[in-house]
Amino acid sequence: MTTLQARTSDLLAAFGLDAAALGGTGDAFAVHSPIDGSVLATVHAHTPDEVDGTLAASRSAFAEWRLTPAPVRGRLVKRLGELIGEHKEQLAELVTLEVGKIGSEALGEVQEMIDVCDLAVGLSRQLFGRTMPSERAGHRLQEVWHPLGVVGVISAFNFPVAVWSWNAAVALVCGDTVVWKPSELAPLTALASTALLARAAAEVGAPADVGRVVLGDRAVGEALVDSPDVALLSATGSTRMGREVGPRVASRFGRVLLELGGNNAVVVTPSADLDLAVNSMVFAAAGTAGQRCTTLRRLIVHSSVADAACDRLARAFASLPVGDPRDAGTLVGPLIHERAHEAMRAALAEAVADGGQVLAGGERVDVGAGGSYVRPALVRMPSQTAVMLRETFAPILYVVTYDDFDEALALHNAASQGLSAGIFTRDQGEAERFLAADGADTGIANVNVGTSGAEIGGAFGGEKETGGGRESGSDAWRAYMRRSTNTINYSGTVALAQGVQFSAE
Ligand code: UN1
């Protein structure tokens, strides 16, 4: 047993899990750590029968859960948040081992889970419907929000637990039950998180099957996509995946919530505070080794400040500590696997063939262990070429210049994805234009803040090929409920809307 494997077993035990019996009874698959490529654990996929059984159990649990008062449902999520808090370090360490996040970011991800539990507990007393004035005397018109059903969650490796929690915490207070198919690259953190949910459910007396996990490959995801039992499918992943999932769920009139690719840009204007801009951009571009959907991938900088911004960014990229994410000083951990590195190399070669100049990084970093470690790359481009308009899930920041603000907006909005955007400026007019109806066409648009690291209080998601879904805060909860519009006649007489007369007597 390797050291990482032994540590993983200990961590799993803290969640009541036995490393020798993880998952279902289907095919065994190994979970590798991106830190050194070693095997952390062996997990068994769930068989098609087991997936069907889980969906059936989730549907029965829903029948009970939907009738539990929402504030009582909130107690489950309150306890879940507390248990996550109690296991914060252990869950974060498992995130580090399984997907390679540095300590601070792994803790941040777990904090994001706790935050969304808090939000959902508050929501459990605020699932408001409206009362509208009826046009008819003696009538009342109101809307009520009811639980929707089983929510299927398909999540990606890069936020292996937070994205589930955005969906699960909100769905559970909304009266839904949740079946989660995590990334095949990150089943351990999923098992640990659902073990905490199971414990919370037992403690507060909620049905045991309110939150279940199903492990496996594409076939397991497809079972959720095609099951008529799944009322809402919330899927995070590539645009290519969303293009398949969206129409399939729609064809059975299920609902989808898609959080797909991003190709996020920042505009840096002549008046920008460059200290602020550079610091923010380094985190947004290099944080999580460029593997967030909100990662900054394009910098659109005014030509008058382009050289200064590039110099400072290049210096920062050159000095970023790349290495083992368990080391305290590391800021950039490994890529998830070697394929990600190959995609990065191919994108850089294409950028260079387009006339791009690599100002810093891009090379493999030897940290003395297996694993794919790279120095984030900064590439100055002659224009916004095709490679810039593609999302490569690796740390590459392309730079193009602009001369007038309309040109900056046009370059910004030329991407087919629309997740997150930022502008660095001290000019209020420019800031407002960036946020205006004809400004940045993304779901998230920031001023003097980078593209990544959104708080859970706002609705998270994006437009265009990002898929249009919204998760976590604001009124994103509505996607997890069905709206019933009710007209109540207490007048004792028939009165038809729009003044229609239709009396046979
Ligand atoms: C993702 O990359 O899928 O805004 C989610 C952020 C994080 C969530 C990212 N709060 O960067």
Keywords:
alpha/beta, 505 residues, Aldehyde Dehydrogenase, Chain A, domain 1, binds 2-aminohexanedioic acid, seven-stranded mixed sheet, 2 domains, five-stranded parallel sheet, Aldehyde Dehydrogenase, Chain A, domain 2
Write a structural description.
With 505 residues, this protein is α/β, with parallel strands linked by helices. The chain has two domains: 49-260 and 467-484, 3-Layer(aba) Sandwich (Aldehyde Dehydrogenase, Chain A, domain 1), CATH 3.40.605; 264-459, Aldehyde Dehydrogenase, Chain A, domain 2. The protein has 14 helices and 21 strands. The chain has a seven-stranded mixed β-sheet with strand order 12-13-14-11-10-16-17, sandwiched between helices. Strands 7-6-5-8-9 form a five-stranded parallel β-sheet, sandwiched between helices. Helix 3 crosses helix 7 (187-204) and helix 10 (274-286) packs across helix 11 (303-319). The radius of gyration is 24 Å and the shape is globular. The mean pLDDT is 97. Residues 112, 158-159, 163, 236, 292-294, 452-454 line the site of 2-aminohexanedioic acid (UN1).
Explain briefly what this protein structure is.
The protein is built from 14 helices and 21 strands. The protein has 505 residues and is an alpha/beta fold.
Write the layout of secondary structure elements.
Blueprint: H1 3-14, E1 28-32, E2 39-44, H2 48-65, H3 70-86, H4 88-99, H5 103-123, E3 131-132, E4 139-147, E5 150-154, H6 162-173, E6 177-181, H7 187-204, E7 211-213, H8 218-226, E8 230-236, H9 239-251, E9 255-259, E10 264-268, H10 274-286, E11 296-302, H11 303-319, H12 338-353, E12 357-360, E13 377-380, E14 396-402, H13 405-413, E15 417-418, E16 420-424, H14 428-435, E17 444-447, E18 459-460, E19 463-464, E20 471-472, E21 481-489
Parallel strand pairs: 5-6, 5-8, 6-7, 8-9, 10-11, 10-16, 11-14, 13-14, 16-17
Antiparallel strand pairs: 1-2, 3-4, 4-21, 12-13, 15-19, 18-20
Helix pairs in contact: 1-4, 2-8, 3-5, 3-7, 4-5, 4-7, 5-6, 10-11
Bound molecules: 2-aminohexanedioic acid.
